[in-house]
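Subject: Interface between my chains keeps coming out wrong

I've been trying for a while to get a sensible model of this assembly. When I model each chain on its own everything looks fine, but I need the whole thing in one frame so I can look at the contacts. Pasting all components below, labels as-is. Any help appreciated, I'm running out of ideas.
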Amino acid sequence: MCPDIDDNSILAKKLYHNMLLIRGFETAAAKQYRDGNMPGFIHLSLGQEACAVGACLALKKEDYITSTHRGHGHCLAKGADPKLMMAELFGKSDGYCKGRGGSMHIADPSVGVLGANGIVGQSLPLAVGAALTAQVKGNSSVALAFFGEGASGAGVVHEAMNMAALWSLPVVFFCEANRYAELSPYETHCPIDKISQRAASYGFPGVTVNGEDVIEVYRETEKAVVRARNGKGPTLVEAKTMRWGGHYEGDPQKYKSAAELENPQSFDPVAFFEKNYSADYGISASDIRKTYARTEKIIKDAVIFAEKSSLSPSKNIFNDVYAP
Ligand SMILES: Cc1ncc(C[n+]2csc(CCOP(=O)(O)OP(=O)(O)O)c2C)c(N)n1
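Reply #2:
Try treating it as a single job with all components included. I did that and got this:
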């Protein structure tokens, strides 16, 4: 069981550190993308750091996550290596998929990252499969599926939730309601205020948390993880959060109002933590400066690693492809 957060400043510092790590990674990725150093598309999670971090720190290393097209933060928070991730985004041979998968296909089973996923909604059945494996093996692992409120309307989400409830599988469904599904504002495709309400129809608990507050996210996810580990079945955790940028890097965001475009940073999990929790957990201004410096160095090293790595040779394109 995870330690209680209230008297655990080491855990609080880790929550803060990991949010800054994601902030740094996404900021660097945006710059590298703009500079033309990354092929393909990237989808950033700036503004959503508390979701990835609060959820993943409620898990153990041997637990699993399944992620989405917006998965950098999830992978980092679960322990993936920023260097291998950055190299993958650069399309380089030292990346997680030897540069052939890109941003939406980061996976690292050694830390329980079963994969980011460009197919909207598919993180749920994959997590249900991992949870079934854990149940059959009796190894007490839990699987957590990240998904967005856009994905929540997909049929496969219903199937996954229904089956997980039926078999009391050790799974947590974690919805990041970040106000937009691709280019569609929440109210244009969601007829209810809270996605968590849907859990009742499957017979398991649903809770909505403030996605700006990493402590609240951690606390509620931990309850869901403990419940899953104890054989009580799934929980749906919905975090109300905010995607600062566009759907993808370069998105002109014409679907946002002038007010929304003006100051997305008014919703800021890092600033929220500094304002509301740093004193409680004994995190001084100097600790804050050091954490910024430490995470900046990790990200700088990741970029240097990616720059130095060679491009994936095109002759390897069919390696590891299992289709006949
Ligand atoms: C099965 C499928 N349908 C459509 C798409 C195109 N698509 C990519 S992202 C996206 C919206 C996802 O919204 P949400 O689940 O809220 O995640 P967010 O982008 O907000 O993180 C859509 C429809 C896709 N990738 N896969």
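Reply #3:
Confirming on my end. Residues 68-70, 118-121, 147-151, 178, 180-182, 247 surround thiamine diphosphate (CB under 6 Å).
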